[in-house]
Amino acid sequence: MFDDADPVLGRIREIALAFPEATEVVAHGRPTFRCGKMFATYGGMIKGGPRFEQSVLFIPDAGERDALLADPRFFHPAYVGPSGWLGMDLTGAATRDSVWTEVGELLDASFRQIAPARVIRLLGEPGRR
């Protein structure tokens, strides 16, 4: 369900695996990124709707959820959406650096919501890795 040589997946891996104790596990045919619990998944879809092969699923900060959903790049993903997750379509994003800064911030927020406190202390202030 994914191409290991996909440059978008490569960038997601680079960002996600830079977090302390982060690991990658393929689950349900997709790369997932974890620190004990899952904080990101590569690729998703809308239930009964389109697939977004080049996308990242994450847990947004509750205060940012509505603003993110107002942006057409974001979607409510099948299966994990009811648990508060969102997806970001990254189609064509491989060469746009501003997108990767945003992805890094979103994954930082997602990671901080699931990582143990001792690991979060290793990160320092939000947005800093």
From TrEMBL:
Q: Which SUPFAM superfamilies match?
A: YjbR-like (SSF142906)
Q: Which Gene3D superfamilies match?
A: 3.90.1150.30
Pfam families under this entry?
YjbR
Which domain of life, per UniProt? Bacteria
In terms of InterPro entries, this protein maps to: YjbR-like_sf (IPR038056), YjbR/MT2646/Rv2570-like (IPR058532)
**Listed name of the protein:** YjbR protein
